[in-house]
Amino acid sequence: MSDLHERSLPSTQLLRLATAGSVDDGKSTLVGRLLYDTKSVLADQIDAVTRASVDKGLSTPDLSLLVDGLRAEREQGITIDVAYRYFATPRRSFVLADTPGHVQYTRNTVSGASTAQLVILLVDARKGVISQTRKHAAVLALLGVPKLVLAVNKIDLVEDPASVFAEISAEFNSLTSSLGWASEDVLEIPVSALHGDNVAVRSDNTPYYDGPTLIEHLESVPVDAEPHRVGLRFPVQYVIRPRTPEFPDYRGYAGQVAAGAVEPGDEVVILPSGVRTTVTRIDTADGELDSAHAGRSVTLVLADDVDVSRGDVIASPADAPEPLGEFDATVCWLAEKPLRPGARLLLKHGTRTTQAIVGTLVERLNEQELTSEPSPESLELNEIGKISVRVAEPIVADDYTVNRHTGSFLLIDPAGGNTLAAGLVGDAIASVELGERV
Fold first, then answer.
1. For residue 291, what are the domain limits?
2. The domain that contains 363 carries what CATH number?
3. I want to staple 254 with a disulfide (CB 3.0 to 4.6 A). Which of 83, 129, 152, 238 is the partner?
């Protein structure tokens, strides 16, 4: 699905979701089943999977083959962070971030779930909640994912499925409750991805379960596009000055509304300078708009000829954030080379990229015990910790717990341009109430 097509979908009909789980929990089969049952794969793909399944001696199509090509590429050393799948039902369209299950790919789970409104977390019914499940749940809590589904897969392979499902559900509910999710935001579903039980069709094999199928839940789950509402946040991407006879004095500021909304006549403040002015017009390639909401790319025209540059933020004066020159942040370290105090990196926040120095490594998260380890010497690959950061140019950011879009950033290698860390402004570790866990 192109970005243009995605923007054309009504926000109430588009659900962003991600999958997570351990190796061999059946995630590829579940994703293949979702694509198959929603008729989101071509006939020739199904024919190819059927032939390959017959060659393997299987009596039914192995739906994991619809997505396992990417797994083979990963095993060959080809870097694939997240595979995005697109499917739809009559009630909703879906963008699914399919993340790998190996523990060394936790960083990819961070990438895939960072914009998700719902995550499907898989467990094998024969294994239950394991260490990787707890790690994924902790990461998803830090990222502020609003809704969770626990798909208890391979439920047909256990002797007493009702008792197993009840036990796994109770343990998972205890975990998610301790991480801050309300009970109504978490749903456990017994499924067999191989046979399609409770994926699109309710199964007669699970009489102990009276809830919705997975697809029914995905179609109906209420998800707020902006669970933490703030005023306008408009990072300026480009200053438009055509200087043509047709537009001799035109000056507009192009970008995407990151949060809130804007209308002509609204008073705004330019950050970090603090200068105030008024929006006079909202332009697009298709003409003027009466308003623009989060996710819409527009050009704002202002009443005054003020100094605005790429990286500045046009914001609502009522709740404008203070520009930050130094701040604490929670980061997931994504690089093989460990992070140590004093590292000089680039920090990218919105449309601004600036030099940054890492100060103190305040603490490291133990995802299994859900406790913090103070003053670590370094953060290794996939580790999560709280650090202090000082930037050369102030950034205009909200706390991540207030707004996910304006509270996130990247740390980048200044030499090679590689992404080294995903960061959350503020103490997201504290937001999961460490020390009060199960």
1. 233-319
2. 2.40.30.10
3. 238
